[in-house]
Amino acid sequence: MGLVKQDVGWRLPDELWAKMEPLLPPRPPHPLGCHNPRTPDRRAMEGILLVLRTGMQWRALNATGICGPSSAYRRFREWLEAGVFREFWRQGLLAYDALAGIDWEWLAMDGAMGKAPLGGEKTGPNPTDRAKKGTKKSLLTDGRGAPLGLAVAGANVPDFKLMRSTLQSMSVERPSPSAHAPQGMCLDKGYDYDEVRALAQQYGFTLHLRQRGEQDKPLEGGKKARRWVVERTHGWINEFRRLLVRWEKREDTYLAMLHFALGIITWFHALLPKIGF
Question: Domain Insertion element IS402-like, which positions (predicted)?
Answer without folding.
Answer: 12-88
